[in-house]
Amino acid sequence: MWPFTRTPAPPLDPAEGDPTTRALHDALTSNDWAAAEAVLHGVPDADDRAHHLSRISELPDLWPALGSWVADAAGDPLPLTVRGAYAIGWAWQARTAARAKYVTKEQFQEFFRRLRLAEDDLDQAIALDAGEVTARAFLVLSARGRQVEPDEAAERFAAVVDRHPHHCFAHQHRLQYLCRKWFGSDDEMFGFARASFAAAPDGSLLGALVPDAHVERSMDDRGDYWTTSEVRDELHAAAARSVFHADYRPRAGSVWAMNLFAYAFSMTGDRQAAAACFAALGDRVTEYPWTYDTVLASPGKAYARHRAKAVAV
User: Could you tell me the superkingdom of the organism this chain comes from (predicted)?
Assistant: First the structure.
């Protein structure tokens, strides 16, 4: 019997089933700064570290407690980076994910106030350590909310990739900045996704930029977009050189990448490719892109529905 039938709608796990992220959550929620420091210092890659930190934004009431860590560790860029990363998600909690016309003036004011606090922390971390890549990566993320000009957004991204050329987290959020719904265009978004992946090594998570771009494009074309041979062929080529490649190794961010491919293959009707993605994921569903499902509002329910179709092949 297929093992997923007992859990038709897997819950969203803020840690994405990652033991390192879970350990970081446990350390931060218990205000065990030494343990949090040990977890993060145990992650040598700045891209992996950024992904783990990106998952702390849903932890409740951390801002005041993180202030004590920053105060107790004056001169240390790590707690500033952690608090800055947290504050970006904290800012979006104030704004909510609603369309701008449904966000109140007071919500916007609090949103921008919290983003300024986040960037102040990240800037201080960089001032203390010019080689700090993780703080720079979160400035790529905050560029959208702060509505920075294109030149500055490009400079923020360049500051990361100059130090870590294939930094997936930075690429992920640079692509979002370049979306038509933010500050770019379809041509800019696809050009960036394709060029970034072309320059990446085999097995890289940057292959997921391709389905990510198609997901964003499909929101403006809900007709036959996913059924075209050009879309299907590009998705297969991207998967073949990334998550389906022999050199691919699961790492922080893999759940994000595999969910994107699972969604995209499901949309194209390629059940075999989708089933391979679902098999790798198990119940590790992410909110994005499943919230874009047009039938079910719950990401878990949408994930379960598409998975059931795929594994019924």
Answer: Bacteria
